[in-house]
């Protein structure tokens, strides 16, 4: 499937939309909620995930292996629990998975800025990749360090702010605004899996009134005001600008909840056609049984037919069925989903252990986590 119409994408994603531009194109209407955020949505992680940690210990006793989730996806390092390489996952893909992954290249091991730029030009030219592109760390999570790179000057600035020990994935900008996370589960030996969850990801906007500055629009918005520090830092050069009446201004690009994206439960849009399409994708991902595949798609009807979408990332064992962050949901539903997910991870690990895979040590997980955390601290700001 050929990627086209990048110019219109630049208008939508890179510059504030004009008055005649609609927002959330291809997505189901974003319905207002009585509560713009749930009361647990921004709890500290050590509080929120404490019940999950307790369940992990109980499951470790039941299945006789504390690190079994680390072989739930034997085709990915540590099953994608932490520190996995995007480029390694992309490189291993075959068939339908390879065809659906948005074109990409990997920039690594540069000796100087000039060397990095020369490598980037060569790599991009080899796959006909042109600006704008998406730059993102090869190792990272929750949208850390993701930026739109519009030209060579922005690429130089991005590389200058990137840790020299890191690696950068440059990926084609997809000409669709609609974005979703497809959570897929399949057991070893089964030909068919199932889509457990769809999360619809809506980028946050404020709409100008011709009077208020961008700062005031953010402060007055019921949801944006809750994460205003993110937006103030990201748009500090434009905060005192008055946004014209009726003009939407996009506050974030990365489709991550922690970066401000609005998540909605999209399980009602799961169809047999979509599950069949992702069975074919999973066939092209070696020993991949569990995780969230992040995509952009043309429109919701095409997605339900399993058509007109591109894969942005393939996430493994640490990924969540992110519909739990729909502000309309309940805490009871959140833990029901999370407990199910970790029961599934342990069962997959148990089955793969029977297939001959040996669980790595928890110490290896800890070392990978420390390494990833140190890299993330050095990444450029997320757009």
CATH architecture: 2-Layer Sandwich
Question: How much of the residues is beta strand, in percent?
Answer: 15-25%
For the termini, the CA-CA separation is 27 Å
CATH class type: Alpha Beta
Low-confidence stretches: 1-21
Round the Cα radius of gyration to an integer and report it: 21 Å
Total helical elements: 13
Secondary-structure element order, N to C: HHHHHEHEEHEEEEHHEEHEHEHH
Structure report:
With 383 residues, the chain is of the alpha+beta class. The chain has a single domain, classed as 2-Layer Sandwich (D-amino Acid Aminotransferase, Chain A, domain 1). Helices cover 35% and strands 15% of the residues. It contains 13 helices and eleven strands. The protein has a five-stranded antiparallel β-sheet. Strand 5 and strand 6 form a beta hairpin. The protein is globular and about 65 Å long. The two termini are 27 Å apart. The N terminus is likely disordered.
For the structure shown, list the relevant keywords.
five-stranded antiparallel beta sheet, disordered N terminus, 13 helices, single chain, alpha+beta, D-amino Acid Aminotransferase, Chain A, domain 1
């Amino acid at each position: 499937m050929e990627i086209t119409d990048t110019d219109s994408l630049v208008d939508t994603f890179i510059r504030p939309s004009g008055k005649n531009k609609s927002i959330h194109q291809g997505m189901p209407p974003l319905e207002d909620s009585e509560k713009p955020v749930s009361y647990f949505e921004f709890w500290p992680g050590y509080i929120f995930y404490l019940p999950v940690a307790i369940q992990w210990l109980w499951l470790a006793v039941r299945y006789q292996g504390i690190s079994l989730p680390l072989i739930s996806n034997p085709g990915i390092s540590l099953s994608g629990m932490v520190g996995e390489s995007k480029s390694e996952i992309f490189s291993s893909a075959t068939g339908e998975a390879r065809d659906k992954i948005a074109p990409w290249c990997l920039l690594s091991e540069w000796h100087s800025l000039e060397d990095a730029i020369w490598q980037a030009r060569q790599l991009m030219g080899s796959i006909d990749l042109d600006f704008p592109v998406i730059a993102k760390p090869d190792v990272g999570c929750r949208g850390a360090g993701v930026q739109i790179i519009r030209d060579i000057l922005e690429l130089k600035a991005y590389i200058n702010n990137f840790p020299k020990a890191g690696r950068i994935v440059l990926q084609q900008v997809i000409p669709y605004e609609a974005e979703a996370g497809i959570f897929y589960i399949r057991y070893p030996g089964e030909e068919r899996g199932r889509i457990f969850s769809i999360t619809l990801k809506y980028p946050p906007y404020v709409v100008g009134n011709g009077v208020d500055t961008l700062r005031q629009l953010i402060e007055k918005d019921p949801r944006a005001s809750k994460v205003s520090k993110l937006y103030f830092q990201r748009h500090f050069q434009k905060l005192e600008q008055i946004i014209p009446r009726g003009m939407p201004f996009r506050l974030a690009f990365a489709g991550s909840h922690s970066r401000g994206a609005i998540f909605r439960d999209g399980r009602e849009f799961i169809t047999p056609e979509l599950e069949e399409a992702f069975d074919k994708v999973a066939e092209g991902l070696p020993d991949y049984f569990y995780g969230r595949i992040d995509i952009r798609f043309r429109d919701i009807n095409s997605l339900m037919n399993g058509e007109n979408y591109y894969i942005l990332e393939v996430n493994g064992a640490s990924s969540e069925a992110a519909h739990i962050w729909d502000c309309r949901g309940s805490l009871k539903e959140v833990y029901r989903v999370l407990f199910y997910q970790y029961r599934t991870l342990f069962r997959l690990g148990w089955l793969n252990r029977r297939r001959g895979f040996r669980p790595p040590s928890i110490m290896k997980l800890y070392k990978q986590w420390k390494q990833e955390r140190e890299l993330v601290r050095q990444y450029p700001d997320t757009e």
